[in-house]
Amino acid sequence: MRAVRASLLVLALSVFFAHSQRVRAQAGGGKGAVVEVPMLFRGPTPAVEVLVNGEGPFLFAIDTGGGGQARVDSSLVERLKLKTVGQARAGDGSGTFTSLDVVELDTLSLGGAEFRKVRAVTRNYNASPALPHIDGILGFNLFADYLLTLDFPAKRVRLERGELPRADGAEVLSFESPRGIPVVELGVGGNKVKADLDTGNTVGGFVLPTALVEKLGTAGAPVVVGRARTVTSDVEIKQVRLKDAIRLGRFEFTEPTVVYPALGDVANVGSKVLGEFSLTFDQKNKSVRLKRSEPPKEAGPASAVQDLRGYPGRYGERTISAEGDALFLQRQGGPRLKMTPVGKDEFGLEIVPEARIRFVRDDVGKVVAINILNRAGEWEKAARDQP
To answer: Of the candidates 164, 200, 299, 330, which lies 20 to 30 Å from 133 by C-alpha distance?
Structure first.
């Protein structure tokens, strides 16, 4: 299984980023001024189109788990001839650091909002061939002067003036930001743990410290599901389902699947979970509001199993099986991975949402093969073994 891109852990940037000038809004700077743009996606990570120095549009992800104001891919640095103005230390929470070049953007425009003199670290952010090309990343601190709303269900990103209501511990939560990113309290079984709210984390919905997982009740043994690369580390990632519930404010997640380890003692809530919500961040008052629409009622297990009957079978080195209302993929000698539907005859993997498995049908509608996107970004075809 290909290495999983891990932007789950923070970029620790040097303090001189504070010298960047604050945002100037061109869409009206008064209270309640709104900039609203479509939310695009790079895998499960929210993204928007921006202009850099008046050129573009370029696709930038929004990473609430990213310190500083912005990051720029090395290809855009070359394209726009951006000059290096300094260096910054970058780390992932493991205690190891590396040095990255810093460039300065004269202007960065999102809808009608313009940010000036934005300093951004730079490196290659396109190491994964399975993900679309990205030109850069917008960090959490870029939006310090705004209410930032990431409305995943409506696929909208909004900037506005104002403040959130006082935190109530239910839908409006207080957060800390010792590393320039939002950290909230997460209930895991009978434990309380600090957790980053990290839209840049594509590894798992909940990433927990190993020491915490070992104290919890689990449903089955953990399995190795891949490797995660951070700016300074490469770690083996395991997955297990908990018997304990996880609580984020008033929202409860029963028997959740979690991955581990987290680098350090802080947990992480990624896009797979945050994508169920509309989130509004108020950095001035250090609070975040979570709104979640009630999911539509799903068909019962019997009808779901009926819909999946045509898929199970052996496809070369891989076996597809059904259990209840879910499909599972297992490569010979590898872990059993839950599949998630993304379209007609097309699935991702729960632990790797950007993965793609497509079922191929013959003229009479019978499934005869699968196509799987490999690490090189090419489709591999495997015919279904005949019974």
So the answer is: 330
